[in-house]
Amino acid sequence: MDIAEKILLVLHFVGIGALFSGFFYQLKQWGEGMKVNAGILHGAWLMLATGLGMVGVLQAANGDEQVNNLVLVAKSIVITAVFFVAYTYNKKEVTPTWVVPAIAGLTTLNIVFAVVWGIVS
Length: 121
Description:
- This protein has 121 residues and is mainly α.
- It is 72% helix and 0% strand.
- It has one domain: Four Helix Bundle (Hemerythrin (Met), subunit A), CATH 1.20.120.
C-alpha cells in the first residue's frame, strides 16, 4: 500500500505541475483573454483521479490512524469544481476573464488545504 500511495502522490504532483504550467503559459495573454488549454484540463483530471485514488488507499492503509474526512471532502469539492470549470470552458474560443485565474486560485487553495490541515492525524 505504501508504494501505491507514493505513486499516486507523485502523479498528483504531476497533475499540479501540468495545471500550473498551463496557467503560466496563458499569462502572456492576460489582456486579450486567456483560454483553458489542454494542460489545465488534463492536469485537473489527473489531480481528481489520483486524489480519489489516494483517498481509497489512505482509508485502507491507515486502520490505526484517523483520516481527517473534513479535509478530504473540502479538497474533493475544490478539485471537482476546478475540473468542471476546466471541462466546461476547454473548447471555447473566448472565455470569461475570471476562468483561468479562478482555476489557478482554487488549485492553490487545494494545496493550502493539504499543507495547513493534516490529512492523517
